[in-house]
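Q: I'm writing up a methods section and want to include an example of the input and output format. Could you take the sequence below and give the corresponding predicted C-alpha cells, formatted cleanly so I can copy it straight into the document?
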Amino acid sequence: MSFLRDGIENVRVFALPDGVRADGQSVAVFGAALVTWHSPHAGMLHQVYLNGRFAGATVDAQQRRLVVQAPCSFQSAARVTVIAVAPADAHVDSASELEQAAVCSGRIRLTLLRSQTLPLGATANIYHDSGTGQVDYTEPVNPAPIPIWPCMQDKAGFGMTQFATGDFGYDSAASVGFGKGALGHGQFGLDADLLGWVGRALPLGKYRFGVKITDAIGNVGLASETAQIVLTPAARPAVDLDVATFNQQTNELTLTVTG
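A: Here is the clean output for your methods example:
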C-alpha cells in the first residue's frame, strides 16, 4: 500500500481527561488522546500510528484530528506518526511498511519483552561494545534509566475484576497489553507487550548490545545480550552533480559527484 508523509506537520497530542476533580485538577487514567495535524493532501484520509502501531483512521478527507487510545500511560513518551492514504486503504495497517522505511538509518532498534515477572519500579539500562566485541557495562548508552512500568496501571490494571480473580499482587482486568501485545509471551490468559528502544546513529560496523534490569531497591539482574549485529548506515545523498568531460567522438559523458 502506498502512503504519503511529506507535508504533514504540526502534529500535536493532547491528553483527554477522564474527569475533573472538585479542585479543578483533571484525572487521566485510561489514556485517551486527541491527535491533531496539518496536511496538504486533499481527497485523502489519514492514519495515526502510536509507537509503530495502527491507532485509527479518519473518515472524512477534511478531518485533521482523531481521538486515539494511548498504548501506555502518559508518563512515558510515545512516537506519533501520521500518514495520508487513499480512501480505499484507510483500513489497511501499514505498520510493517513504516518500520521498513527506517531500515539502513544507521540506528539500532532493540525490542524488550515486558512481562509480568518484571517488578514495579524496575528500570532498564542498555550497553554496547563500541564495535570491540565485548559489551562494556560501565556506562549505559541511554541518557537515563528506562522505566519498565512508568505507571502502576500499566502492570496492575484498573481494579475492575472481582477480588482474587487476578494473580497475586495485581488485577487481571485491563492489565498489560490491552490485547495488542506479543502472542504467547504472557502468562496464560494475559497479554504481554514489547518495549522498543532506538539508539543514536552509529558508523558502519559490527556491534553487540546488552540489557540489565534494576529493581526499585537497586538489585541488578544478569545481563541479556544480543548476537552480533551488522550496522549499515544510510548512504549520504549527493550534494552536487557536475559534468566533468564529454567526448563527442565516443559520445561519453563523465560526471563528478560531490558527497
